[in-house]
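Researcher: I'm preparing a figure for a lab meeting and need a structural model of a single chain. I don't have an experimental structure, so a prediction will have to do for now. The sequence is pasted below. Please return the structure as C-alpha cells so I can convert it later.
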Amino acid sequence: MRSIDESQPHSIFFISDYADFGAAETIRKILHEATITGVLEKAGHGIYIKPKISRFGKVPVPLEKIAREIAERDKCEILPTGSTAANLMGLSTQLPMNLSYIMTGSTRTIKIGDRKISFRHASPRNFAAKGRVIPLLIQGIKEIGEESMSGVEYEAIRRFIDKQQDPYLKEEMVLVSPCLNAGTTMPPVEPGIRCILRSTKGAAIESVFPVLRPATIAVVLAPISCVRRWGLLK
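Model: Understood. Here is the structure written out cell by cell.
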C-alpha cells in the first residue's frame, strides 16, 4: 500500500484504517505480508508499526505514541494516571513498565509485546478543564498521596509547571488565602469540579511559588470562576 511505503518510521497503522479497501480479514492478510517482508511489525492485536532503525539497531516505538494514536482512532480523550502521571511530572523517577490512562472511551488493556497500556473509563468531568496541565497534576498528586507531599515533591511540581506552555494554566490554577478573612473556611467543592486543597507553611510552598509570602496558604486547583464564586480570590 502506498500510504505505508510513503510513511515515516514509527508510523502506526490499524486494520480499521483500511476498512474501505475490503474485509477485515483481507486487510489483515495484506498487513501480515508486510510484516514478513519487514516493512511493518505487528505491535499488538490489529496494531502495526513501521520500524525505525538507527546505527545502534531497532528503535522501539514509545508506548505514549501508541496510546495517543489509539485515542485519536477511537475519537476519545485520554489522560495519564497513576504511576504514568507521577513519572511525567517528575514526582517519581521510576519508569513504569506499563502505562495507565483514564479515557472517555471504554475500559480495555492493550498488550504491546511484553508491556501493556491500560485504559480505564472515567467521567467526562475529569476532562472538563480547558488545558491539560491541571488534570495531570491532579492525577499525579493522587498517585503520590496528598499527605506524602513534601518539599521535594513541591520542587518537582514547580519544575514541571515551569516547562509547560499551556495557555490555560494561569486561568485554571489559582492560589488563594482563606486566612484573608478571619474565621473563613473553604466551602465544599461544587459537583463536577475536581479540586485539590493543601495547606502548608510558607517555607515549603515558597520553594514552588516564591512570589507568595502568607504564612499559611491553600493551593486550589480549580477553574478561576469557581474560586471567584467562593469569594476567596485575592
